[in-house]
Amino acid sequence: MSENRDQNHFDLKDLISLDTVRSKKSPSSWEEAVEQVGELLVNAGKVKPAYINAMKRVFKEMGPYAVIAPGIVLLHASPDDGVLSPSVGLITLSNPIEFGHSENDPVDIVIAFGAIDKHAHIAALKALAELLADHCYLQKIRSAQTDRDLLHAIVDEF
Amino acid sequence: MRIATLCGMGFGTSMMLKLFIEEILKAEGIKAEVIPWDLGSFKGQQADIIVAPVDMESHMKSTQSRVVLIKNLVDKAEIKEKVLQAIKDMNAP
Predict the structure, then answer these.
(1) For chain B, which residues make up each domain, given as ranges?
(2) ipTM of this predicted complex?
């Protein structure tokens, strides 16, 4: 098995699209929020439906550490749980939801990603992390009122 | 020096943390091995410093390593401050 996987090297723009982002959703629970973002990836053909329950299970098993920063949860399960191709889904919420983190609740940005292995999506994940580290971009993401504006807020910086 | 980053599965947050820490170490000219761990496989492995999200504290009660807990995993300033402090503490006579 070769460690050189340049042909499987994805950028954020490759993993996120108008199909995988939605702005200002209103789930009434954290489970519903996970379903809403998960369904985007399912409908885009990136993950199998079972991946949604897998993400919920992983979140419940691991504890709320996935709320990685104030207001932001990063969900994922394992490739074996039904990832078809690497992808990132992102929804913003008009009503923030508690995910159970001691410091970083409530959440208004719900991100789901599907990895196929430990390497292919790393550049995209790093790009996403850089984006989330920048308050200006977070502000743009949070204030996007349409799906298209949200997509532009995320990918136009690259 | 060996620094481990911890997350639930080794796919996401431990990788992100590893990338940020490597950047910080490079900028400071510090040499260290940075390894992503996941909860399932880290018992029995050794590291000088373990960097983990703040809600993972309970999984690390029995470790001998120096533990750094991060509240905001995308806050480079927090990661830099805490990791560099841990390294300094390690090297203190």
Answers:
(1) 2-91
(2) 0.76
